[in-house]
Amino acid sequence: MAGRLSLQEVDLSCSICCEIFRDPVVLKCSHSFCAPCLQQYWTRGPRRRDCPLCRSQSVDEPVPSLTLKNLCDAYIQEGEGAEETTAAGTRTAGDLYCDPGEMCPLHGERLKLYCVPDQEPICVVCHTSRKHKQHDCCPVSEAVADVKDKMKSALGSMQEKRDAFDQMKKNYEDAVEYIQVQARFVERRTREEFEKLHGFLVAEEEARMEALKREEEAKRRAVMQKIEEIVGNITSVSESIRVLEEEMALKGIAVLHKCKTTLARSNSPIQDPVMPPGALLDVATYLGSLKFHVWEKMHKIVKFTPVTLDPNTAAPWLILSEDLSGVCDSDEKQKMPDNPERFDPDTGVLGRESFASGKHAWVVNVGDNTAWVVGVAKESVQRKEKVSSVLKNGYLSVYFYHKMYFAGTSPLTRLNLKRNPQKVRVQLDCDKGRVSFYDPQDDTHIYTFKHVFSERVFPYFWVGCQQCPLTLEPLEVSLKAVEYF
Length: 485
Description:
This protein is 36% helix and 17% strand. It has 485 residues and is an alpha+beta fold. α5 (140-248) runs antiparallel to α6. It is elongated and about 190 Å long.
């Protein structure tokens, strides 16, 4: 009994159906199979009456194995008794059968090896076959462990990728909210600017209407006065005509007595009625090039700065003025999307304009700012890490820090200035490869970089002061009509 109980399920399983033997038979080569399974194999197999395991030919009829049948029956009965007398969780009779997936479909042997080149589990017989001969193989347990390690690594990568997608999804959601904030800000500022323009135009229209009204009244009064004078003259001439007509009706010497006075009165000088120049409205003054003259006056209230700060590049700690011409530092980090253009953690901001050719200039009012950098930055500068504003990192700039002035060379160049400039003019000549800095108050030269530009550059500003902003100075705008000769 002890020998029977020590048998394993694999020892009592048919290599064809992978189940406990049913009506077991044994061949001359000593391999055993279920009688129905062997007969079915011989019927449909490519070769006739050969052993499914060792392929040896068998001309004799298979012999029933009564001993093996008794062992199988006892094994099954033992499993059924254990199922009836044990609690849930123990193995049932169905558990005693092999998993077909663990058996070789060709040879009926357990899949104990793993072919590395073909990446599939094989049995010992497959290992000696022509298909897998000389292939690197390892035990299935080792292959399972290796695959699980790879799956674990792949799982980690996929989880990291999922986390990255989750973060990107949140960034996009934040971007949607921020786009709405930007749209409302632009809408408000646009309305405010157009209200100013509308206000100017309305005021200009009212002023022109008032001037027209004043001139109309003045010209009307002058003409009415002339009309009154003419009416007086008409009355006087009419009276003279009446007297002459009466005296001409007299006869005899009576005419001679009165003719002297009458003729003297009729010959008194009366100015001919002539309209003086300028009596009419000067219509051309009001309507001639009306839009141009209004535009000419409008430029006095309109500011133009050659550089506009780009809020999409500003670090979250920076605060930009509403007209995008000034920037200062702050203690509080604002909630902004982490878009690729934005500086973070470096407190920098770029101008919206970029330059690749030609000459350009702008003036920055640094005032009493205690920490600032002004210059240009290449398009390829790193914006997601804190770097020194030096030439090798893509910056051409001068800066003021700890009450000292430096040029951003490598190593740094200390600048000895005679006085602290309140404004700094940046002059960029892309074609000659120069970036120069001046004090516009007396045009004192501060420093010049000589560098060949192989990519676009942007105006660059860095600020570390909260009390005094950096501001871009507006340019003087003049309008002039072109004369043709």
